[in-house]
Design a protein that fits this description.
mainly alpha, 3 helices, 73% helix, globular
């Protein structure tokens, strides 16, 4: 997920690719921005 996000993918596209809801992708993206940077 994070790699897709770093490549500029939108949450809805990542969600389809990995089989999650786009809101779950958004949550992971926010958490990673807090701790992974």
């Amino acid at each position: 997920m994070i790699l897709f996000a770093s490549e500029g993918w939108q949450n809805k596209d990542i969600a389809v690719e990995v089989g999650l809801d786009r809101r779950q992708v958004a949550l992971w993206r926010r958490e990673c921005q807090k701790f992974c940077v």
